[in-house]
Design a protein that fits this description.
Elements: H1 6-13, H2 20-31, E1 35-40, E2 44-47, E3 52-55, E4 66-70, E5 78-87, E6 97-102, E7 122-126, E8 131-132, E9 145-146, E10 156-162, E11 167-172, E12 175-182, E13 188-194, E14 200-203
Antiparallel strand pairs: 1-4, 2-3, 3-14, 4-13, 5-10, 5-14, 6-7, 6-13, 7-8, 8-9, 10-11, 11-12
Length: 216
Amino acid sequence: MTVDGFIRRAQSSLDRVIPTLVNYIVMMFLLHDRWDEDLLGPLLSLNQHTHTVTMTGGDLRREHPQSAFLCNVVDRGQYKWRFQWTKLKYALYWSSTIGIWKCSQGFSPQTNGIFTLGEHVAYGFAANAGTLVDPSSGSGGDGGTRYGAPCSDNDIVEMCIDLDRLELGYTINGKDYGPAFEIEKTAYRAAVNMCKLHDSIRIIHDVEIESGRPSI
């Protein structure tokens, strides 16, 4: 009932029946997304305390792209994720990407590699290139469509999926760049890809959920 907005509706119609603090605590524990420990690339490490994923494996001569998935499955309404790149290096072609992966593909998510690769399997923003991944192939980086702005250390990227309007868009450091993709009506999980040693990204847990019902 909480996820369907019961607390918000009750709070507005029955003043002071549900204390604001109770509302906040329940929403915080039930609605915030988190990294899926079973869906992290083998060269990635997770710090549970700071909600941060870092590329720690490999070396500078043999860097290999790695992906990490979040837990919530979103299939309706609007949902926002907020991330901060705590460390982000420039990559010539394969960029560090924030996006959504289609859950209805009939196969497991790709972690030891790039989660967007394939024909119409995902949508993504190549953050350190400031481009969009091509949904038809999953490739991006310098060859993609320009969007937003290239990101670097400490930049904050908010990703918003709207399954009513069938749009995916991004806000970078508070600036909304509008719709990036027209998406299909299906279920999605958020995911990131990193390709450079020591690249690091964390979830900021003041995520706003406006409507919809993510599956946790």
